Predict the structure.
Amino acid sequence: MYTGRQGLTLFTAIFSLVGVVVVVQLWLLSAALDAALSGEGGLAVPATVASLALFLVNAGLLWYVLDFDERRRRSEAE
Amino acid sequence: MADDPKPPVPRWRGDFPIRWEQDHYITRRELTKFLTLGSALLVCATGAVALRGRRFRPSGGAARRIAVVGDVPPGGSALFRYPTDGDPCILVRLADGRFVAYSQVCTHLSCAVIHEPGSDQLHCPCHQGFFDAGDGRPTGGPPQRRLPRIRLEVRGEELFAVGVEV
């Protein structure tokens, strides 16, 4: 059984986390671009892997939010 | 018994049909989806940098004659363009007589660096950046990256630019 207040708190936390992860990805992109312009193109590969891992975290969090909403809707309907 | 009349709907409701709570609820979830999509795009952009990183590295073009050895005294400098006419470069003859050449574009914000006669230092006057003329490393001010180095060859009495090292 989930309440709207629980959902709001949880979603606020997840929303903040997603925002922070996107900022970290932006930093990774700028670091990779800076390294590539310095002639150190090899640094962009681990940056891409890290960015992909962060995207998977974001996708997982989004999936959790959508699933939470769905479960809440179902429990309200019962 | 008459039914309670419903309160009239205010006219502004037509312009703002979404209730506050509803708007809050929908917008933040949509923004989370948008952020996740942006997250995927950032992965693609970082991957594109990784794949095409080598293209940022200019390798130089054909050899180009840039100066005559005797024209540049120790402690002096000369300007030239390499590998294209749109790429300004600077040739420096160090105090010990060696020739070095670099891109003249500052790695901070792309101002033109200049050589201070008699010194082994390059100076960017826009933001007070300094580079070591011996190897192009930044020695002061905001620049963090070394200047791209131009490979030189001496053929007889003439100096040729033959490549670029980032």
The longest helix of chain B spans residues 20-52. The mean pLDDT of chain B is 86. Chain B is about 20% helix and 30% strand. The interface with chain A takes residues 28-29, 31-33, 35-36, 38-40, 42-43, 45-47, 49-50, 53-54, 56-57, 107, 145-146, 148, 165-166 of chain B (CB under 8 Å).
